[in-house]
Write a structure and sequence with these properties.
single chain; mainly beta; Immunoglobulin-like; 4 domains; signal
């Protein structure tokens, strides 16, 4: 019985010794660490307030593959005012540079951390896409604005993804495979920029209304553009057509709306899916009023006189419109009028009126 107790007591002691001597980490049990490596990209670029967890892999005697030794690393930083460390997590504190040091069993590694001002905004150009299935477009350019107001082009550092399989990313381009909507997302550090993408089917016909119009200076008019698909369905393309003007000094088009600038003519050409439409624009000055050569007439019987009428425009321009005006008399028995020539017929009073475009002028006539 005593022998059994002694044996059990010895076994228990052996277990205790083994437990004390056995390492809590795999490193001591398998041999020496010959080298370590911080696997995160170097230099590590961070913005103020951003954090990142570092990972350390080691070459360890007795192992063919590198081992994750992150938990056993002793960390330090060259500049705690720029970057601090807590359990392998780097926190960016202020703009500047700091070297992060890692040590395991005498093996050392380091990584340079570059900290920039906090990102205030991120934007992509273009902000959205619309293209036909089967076609492709270059990925957007992306810029950021930091808290200090500095703008940076970060296009080459963006990691892009798409929200569904309607589009694919290939060689720096986005290609639309199936009609529908896709969200293109670009990630830069902790910031994400989103670019909506509309993939459309092939349009077989594009029509614009009106094909010709006349407008006054500094006026606007929306153009209506309808596209027809191969299956007969239609779509309003009014704000999707790309327009050019043959004379930008006379008329321009923005978001499907014509804006006139000066008197003259311009041909507006719209394109959509390699199809072309045209609208002719004539810009004329606005008629302000008609000015008669005389404000009133007094005639004797059988007497006559000839009136002239001048059109005055908002540009200050004037022109004689006597022969193109429509003339009338309220009492032809008192006086008649033809192309501005007034002939007294009988005693009394009448009014002679000249109308041209949307204006008219009236001249009172007395026949004695």
């Amino acid at each position: 019985m005593n022998r059994i107790k002694i044996t059990l007591r010895g076994l228990l002691a052996l277990i205790i010794v083994c437990t004390v001597l056995a390492p809590s980490h795999i490193l001591a049990a398998t041999g020496d660490v010959t080298s370590i490596e911080i696997t995160n990209s170097s230099p590590q670029k961070l913005s103020v307030s951003q954090t990142v967890a570092l990972k350390v892999m080691a070459e360890v005697e007795g192992f063919d593959n590198k081992q994750d030794v992150t938990a056993g690393v002793t960390w330090s930083t060259s500049n705690a005012a720029v970057a601090t460390l807590v359990k392998g997590k780097v926190k960016a504190v202020a703009a500047g540079e700091a070297t992060i040091y890692a040590e395991v069993d005498g093996a050392k590694a380091q990584i340079l951390v570059q900290v920039s001002e906090k990102i205030k905004s991120i934007k992509a150009s273009p902000k959205s896409y619309s293209f036909v299935k089967g076609s492709e477009s270059t990925l957007p350019k992306v810029s950021i604005v930091r808290a200090n107001g500095k703008e940076e082009d970060v296009t080459s550092e963006i990691v892009w993804t798409v929200s569904n399989e309607l589009a694919v990313l290939e060689n720096g381009k986005i290609k639309g495979n199936t009609p529908g909507r896709v969200l293109l997302q670009g990630k830069y550090g902790s910031e994400t920029v989103k670019v909506p993408v509309a993939i459309t089917d092939i349009i077989t016909k594009v029509e614009v209304t009106p094909t010709a119009l006349q407008l006054n200076i500094k006026k606007s008019k929306a153009l209506k553009v309808i596209g027809t698909y191969a299956n007969g369905k239609t779509i309003n393309l009014s704000k999707q057509v790309t327009w050019t003007s043959s004379n930008n000094a006379v008329a321009t088009v923005k978001n499907g709306t014509v804006k006139t600038l000066a008197e003259g003519q311009a041909t507006l050409t719209g394109t959509y899916q390699n199809q072309t439409i045209k609208t002719e624009v004539t810009v004329v000055p606005l008629l302000k009023k008609l000015i008669p050569s005389q404000k009133k007439l007094v005639l004797s019987r059988q007497g006559s006189t000839t009136l002239t009428v001048m059109a005055q425009y908002d540009t200050g321009k004037t022109s004689v419109v006597t022969n193109s005006a429509v003339w009338s008399s309220t009492k032809p028995s008192v006086a008649t009028v033809t192309n501005g020539k007034v002939v007294a017929v009988g005693k009394g009073k009448t009014s002679i009126t000249a109308k041209w475009n949307n204006k008219k002028v009236t001249i009172p006539v007395t026949v004695k």
